[in-house]
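Why should sequence recovery work at all? Because a backbone constrains its sequence more than one might expect. Tight turns favour small or flexible residues, buried strands favour hydrophobic ones, and helices have their own preferences. The token representation captures these environments compactly. In the example below, the structure is given first.
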């Protein structure tokens, strides 16, 4: 089985190296092939998603991705910016379903900025639509403002849109995920203001007829952001659009103690997928050897479970992560008094050692 390894920029190579170490320590040997992506792709081949990298990702059974982005590339034209690499991979591989599970490991209850009683026992799943919405809608750009008080000035604009089929397929993924959990689904929208999201809501209601065993509720995104920090355990599965899902999943990350703990799976219709931590390239800590590699290691576990059919290996990795946390090992982002501060590599080594 072949896995494409795309480390990317910033802390990407540091954290992916730890996940690779863990994969190599499993009984089964996987064929791992690396390629540059993001700023690293631009530096090597003049494009954030070089042809060879895309071809490797397409040919592989799964993709393990680090992170892309570096401020030194922020002034490049948009098509050449590192972030286009991950957007291009999602679009080219048809990865429309992004699963971001926010689980609080009991040992990290004190690491969250929220009170332990608010977050302890937290286990929610955010399902973010990943290839539509304002992220990909056309037209977009900067033009001359056609009317109103700012007529004649330049204006920036984007297009929010969702086709019916795009909403239906992500809704099915969400209802089916809810069926395997507590059978509660919250669809997050902004139907009170946006046409796109009134349409979203109507279609989700229509799809819900196929899933009478799942309790569906609707929530506006502003309220959902508030409820996520007020009473996050009230949620089971959340389904939402691309942009709202991006924002809400970063908020949910803090419930788990740190964004360095939140893995993700981005899946196509056949469960082929790309696996990456939900966080970015963290240029502020890159090269210091202090980034938390657990979100990436847990993403590798999701890869084994969802795309490679190796649930028992995934369990081993997840149990190893629980074990290192129980041993009191903490990277700086989740460190608290009475625990042992370790760097990126030490954390990776500890997970390898803890594999049962
Ligand atoms: N999928 C991706 O590749 C992805 C996702 C988000 C942001 N980005 C890009 O990353 C760059 C930086 O973006 P940002 O600063 O808004 O978000 P970020 O997620 O990179 O960092 C936000 C904060 O969280 C911290 N952090 C992130 N991951 C961490 C980890 N594993 N361990 C410890 N601390 C961690 C960072 O140090 C920073 O303080 C930008 O270029 C952005 O476009 C890429
Ligand atoms: C880097 C960026 C394009 C990306 C997104 O907005 O989807 C990131 O924030 C994420 O959450 O994966
Ligand atoms: Mg994001």
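From this structural description, the recovered sequence reads:
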């Amino acid at each position: 089985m072949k896995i494409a390894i795309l480390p990317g920029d910033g802390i990407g190579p540091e954290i992916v190296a730890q996940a690779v170490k863990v994969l190599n320590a499993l009984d089964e040997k996987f064929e791992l092939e690396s390629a540059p992506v993001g700023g690293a792709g631009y530096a090597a081949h003049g494009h954030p998603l070089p042809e060879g990298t895309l071809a490797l990702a397409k040919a592989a059974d799964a993709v393990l991705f680090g992170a892309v982005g570096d401020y030194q590339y922020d002034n490049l034209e948009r098509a050449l910016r590192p972030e286009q690499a991950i957007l291009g991979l999602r679009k080219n591989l048809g990865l429309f379903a992004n699963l971001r599970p926010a689980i609080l490991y009991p040992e990290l209850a004190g690491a969250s900025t929220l009170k332990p009683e608010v977050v302890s026992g937290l286990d929610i799943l955010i399902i973010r639509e990943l290839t539509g919405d304002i992220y990909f809608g056309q037209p977009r750009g900067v033009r001359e403002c056609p009317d109103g008080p700012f007529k004649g000035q330049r204006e920036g604009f984007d297009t929010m849109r969702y086709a019916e089929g795009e909403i239906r397929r992500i809704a099915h993924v969400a209802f089916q995920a809810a069926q395997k959990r507590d059978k509660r689904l919250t669809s997050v929208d902004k139907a009170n203001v946006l046409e796109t999201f009134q349409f979203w809501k109507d279609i989700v209601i229509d799809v819900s007829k196929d899933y009478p065993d799942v309790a569906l509720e609707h929530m506006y995104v502003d309220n959902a952001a508030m409820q996520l920090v007020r009473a996050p355990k009230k949620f089971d599965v959340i389904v939402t659009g691309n942009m709202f899902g991006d924002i809400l999943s970063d908020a949910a990350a803090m419930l788990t103690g740190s964004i360095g703990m939140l893995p993700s799976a981005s899946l196509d219709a056949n469960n082929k997928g790309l696996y990456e931590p939900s966080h970015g390239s963290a240029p502020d800590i890159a090269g210091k050897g202090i980034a938390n590699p657990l979100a990436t290691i847990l993403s590798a576990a999701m890869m084994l479970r969802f795309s490679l059919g190796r649930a028992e290996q995934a369990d081993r990795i997840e149990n190893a992560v629980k074990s290192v946390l129980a041993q009191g090992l903490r990277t700086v982002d989740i460190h608290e008094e009475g625990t042992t501060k370790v760097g990126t590599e030490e954390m990776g080594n500890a997970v390898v050692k803890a594999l049962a």
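A few observations help interpret the result. Residues 176 and 259 are 26 Å apart (CA to CA).
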